[in-house]
Amino acid sequence: MRWPGEVLSTFALGVALSTGSPSAHAADPVTDAMQAAYVPYRAALFRTNGKAQVESERAIAEAVRAWQAVVARFVAAPPVPYAGDPRFAATLAQVSSTYGEAEALIKAGKLPEAHEELEKVRDLLAALRQRNGVVVFSDAMNAYHEVMEHVLVEGPALVAAPQGAMELMARVGALGYLAERLESQAPADLASDPEFVAARKAVVESVVALRAATLAQDRDAMRKALGGLKAPYSRLFLRFG
Which domains are seen in the chain, by residue range? Predict the structure, then answer.
């Protein structure tokens, strides 16, 4: 996903890096470590979304260091629930390789390509958790993100199509459901965090705006609402995702 460069200020990024995410803690040391390493990963995603070459190099270096610590600690003998996963070490190696590709692209000044490469890390870690029965709040964020991407890709064409509003409404319904799950799936420490509550509310409101515009079949409003989906999600993801 390509994020708008104006989404978050440097100050906001600093806050996200310094505080991490309260939802980073799970019930096992491997997941806890991976979620902790996810914080600099999110920062690298953010930095590579713009034109900040030096900042991107620093961000990827920090993300790589954090990930290398996870690998060094667990690759040889992962504890439960990952102990019986025959693909555990291979997945960690894939993530390391992806980071290496992204780092090379950043050094070559190819930030958009690096951003897309880094997206693979999210999918690899989600698949690793899923096959080992581990659920974290990031999974709810990923589910919303996947549907949002489809809406953003398909939405403009549907807006222009004669019966497109009806097809778009079906997708908006799914997006609304997943937006609500960002509340129901949030752990207690997030649910009581005013910053999280405000950020999640902004995501829901962006979907509500698209739904209202689609119901009214107001094409200009639909296009505007489509353009308003990314920023709220990006804020929520960087801080809490």
Answer: 27-131 (1.20.120.660), 137-240 (1.20.120.10)
